[in-house]
Design brief:
Blueprint lengths: L2 E2 L14 H10 L4 E4 L17 H18 L5 E9 L5 H9 L5 E5 L2 E2 L2 E2 L14 H18 L4 E2 L17 H14 L2 E5 L14 H10 L3 E4 L12 H12 L2 E6 L2 E6 L1
Parallel strand pairs: 1-2, 2-3, 3-4, 4-7, 7-8, 8-9
Antiparallel strand pairs: 5-6, 10-11
The chain binds zinc ion (2 copies).
One zinc ion binds next to loops.
Length: about 260
């Protein structure tokens, strides 16, 4: 059984295609399940240039997923997900917002260090004026907060900070072990996200260094393409499957109404 738990659509304003186009592509490549997981709205519609507004969530995103789930139920299982953002200070807003919908799962992602969207190509120059080791430490500090928040089911692209190829100059082993010990305690899954292969770093999220730690700690894996265009649904899953065999015992987590279960790929 093969599942893509991480997909976007035009509502976030930096992806192409309707939700239905993503589902149709998933069917065409033989996936058994697709999760719709566009970027969450934020308090006061902050950062609305890169995400749907709250009004779009209620009027369009949520109802469309349920209509399409019904329409395609004989061809594919459609899950209602969301890619949440962990930002210190927004926790209670996120908790209230997430509780209002019947999500199958919510991905917890870190895309911001303070107000810097460090994975946004528009703001990449900031890597050159900051200490890269400090950036990594700040990033993993936010991941720790996300794991401890209890708000999310999946850690999204857990080493996203490498996206443009900036590498720390000091060993990160201790930082990584602290983070993934917290993730283990949280009972969350960590996604294998193939989109890194399509970014300047040209590497899966996470790296095999991180996957080794995950496997040592017995942290469950899940799988997503992070498609921002319908053709990218299921992209490079042949490579991801090899990693799931090697580091996850051939199993991934799937979600229904925020309950995790494991399937064999
Ligand atoms: Zn995006
Ligand atoms: Zn993301």
């Amino acid at each position: 059984m093969l599942v893509d738990n991480h997909t976007h659509n035009y509502l976030c304003k930096h992806a192409d295609g309707m939700i239905e186009n993503y589902i149709q592509h998933a069917i065409s490549i033989g996936l058994d399940e697709i999760g719709i997981s566009d970027h969450t709205p934020m308090p006061d519609n902050w950062d609305r240039e890169f995400r749907m507004t709250e009004e779009q969530f209620w009027k369009e995103y949520s109802p469309t997923v349920f209509v399409l789930r019904e329409k395609y139920k004989n061809k594919i299982s459609v899950k209602f997900g969301l890619e949440g953002d962990f930002m210190p200070g927004t926790e209670s807003w996120v908790k209230t917002f997430n509780a209002k919908s019947d999500f199958d799962y919510v991905i917890g992602s870190v895309h911001y260090i303070d107000d810097w969207g460090f994975d946004n190509p528009t703001f990449v120059a900031k890597y050159d004026v900051k200490d890269v080791n400090e950036i990594y430490e700040q990033y993993y500090d936010r991941i720790n907060g996300s794991a401890q928040s209890g708000l999310f089911d999946i850690i999204g692209h857990c080493d996203l900070v490498k996206k443009f190829g900036h590498r720390p100059t000091k060993a990160m082993e201790e930082v990584l072990r602290e983070t993934f010990a917290l993730v283990k305690q949280s009972n969350m899954a960590v996604e294998i996200n193939t989109s890194g292969l399509r970014k300047p770093v040209k590497e899966m999220y996470p790296s095999e260094t991180v996957l080794k730690i995950l496997s040592e700690y017995g942290i469950p894996l899940t799988l997503g393409s992070d498609a921002h265009t319908p053709m990218d649904v299921g992209r490079d899953f042949d490579l991801a499957k090899q990693l799931i065999e090697r580091y996850g015992g051939g199993k991934i987590s799937v979600f229904s109404k925020r309950q995790r279960s494991e399937i064999k790929i």
